[in-house]
Design goal:
single chain; 91 residues; alpha+beta; globular
């Protein structure tokens, strides 16, 4: 599960790539669900350089990102939006 601070994918994806556990590998591509983010780009700049960003078809779901590692492995990561967990706990 990923807990971004906001809906600016250019900022949040860079943070995700930079802080991704090095024991799992390094992220070289990010794919997002359309409509989830208010600011998007086709690339982000990280401490490792440029990482390409794309979007998946709407049928794949929402609140989800896929990351491809340099090893070729693809990981599906659920997104928990700010405040969403608090709302679920209150109910």
């Amino acid at each position: 599960m990923w807990l971004p601070y906001g809906r600016d994918l250019t900022r949040e994806a860079a943070h995700l790539v930079d802080e991704f556990p090095s024991t799992r590998g390094r992220v070289d591509r990010v794919v997002y669900a359309p409509g989830d983010w208010s600011v998007v780009s086709d690339e982000v700049w990280t401490r490792y350089g440029r990482v390409k960003v794309g979007y998946m078809t709407a049928a794949r779901g929402r609140a989800l990102v896929l990351v491809r590692l340099t090893s070729g492995e693809v990981l599906k990561i659920r997104v928990a939006w700010p405040g969403a967990a608090v709302l679920r706990l209150v109910r």
